[in-house]
Specification:
Elements: H1 7-26, H2 30-45, H3 53-60, H4 68-79, H5 90-96, E1 119-123, E2 128-135, E3 138-148, E4 153-154, E5 161-162, E6 164-171, E7 180-187, H6 190-196, H7 201-211
This protein binds zinc ion.
Length: 212
């Protein structure tokens, strides 16, 4: 069967399962447990707009997860249907940042592409952060200054409380002569950010803000 789950949807489902399992351990009330199971199923089904019967059958099993072992089994099954971020090589990445002369390309060997909604890495030498992400189906590169914050805060991309920094980039609007500056607080660790991401909307908003 083809892939039909995005990485952020997978993270959402994983998070729902954690909550479901904690309810199983905290309540002995059958009715409450049952209500929670249906609620979890509904939330997960709502992520998708049109599932085939076969896909629905897989997703439906979320309500039957009762313990850690079943969770691991269910999630590993789901993982087989997660879209993978297209693995990029050094050349692909360099092409996304044509103006950067000495681009610090991250080590690509250990990247789990299947867990990514975007690729982000830091060049601490130049205090820059680089992001490769999709906008309306096109892969693009965004380069910005990154200034780590002293305190943790909410990341604009994953919406979690994390070690963040101010990412600023300048964009050229057609109507203006001089580029304008745009910025937002995002996770320092983009790998962690991807693991936190449970919806694509904030990432899309961020990309839009930083490019137009
Ligand atoms: Zn984040």
């Amino acid at each position: 069967m083809e892939s039909f789950i995005r990485a952020d949807q997978y993270n959402f489902i994983k998070d729902q399962i954690t909550t479901l399992l904690s309810t199983h351990t905290s309540t002995h009330d059958q009715a409450v447990a049952h209500a929670f199971k249906s609620m979890t199923r509904e939330k997960v089904i709502d992520l998708f707009s049109d599932l085939s019967n076969e896909q629905k059958e897989i997703i439906d099993q979320v309500q039957d997860v009762k313990d850690e072992t079943e969770a691991i089994f269910f999630l590993s099954r789901l993982k087989q249907h997660v879209f993978t971020f297209p693995p990029l090589n050094e050349q692909n990445i360099k092409r996304l940042f044509p103006k950067v002369k000495k681009l610090e390309v991250p080590s690509l060997r250990n990247i789990e592409w299947g867990t990514l909604s975007y690729l982000g890495w830091n060049d601490s030498g130049s205090n820059q952060k680089f992001i490769a992400a999709y906008k309306n189906g096109d892969l693009l590169g965004i380069q910005g200054n990154f200034k780590p914050s002293r305190q943790s805060g909410i990341c604009a991309i994953c919406k979690e409380h994390e070690e963040v920094g101010m990412f600023t980039t300048s964009i050229k609007l057609n109507t203006l002569e001089t580029p304008i500056s745009r910025g937002n607080y995002i996770c320092k660790d983009s790998h962690r950010c991807n693991e936190n991401l449970k919806s694509l909307q904030p990432l899309d908003n961020f990309i839009k803000l930083m490019t137009e």
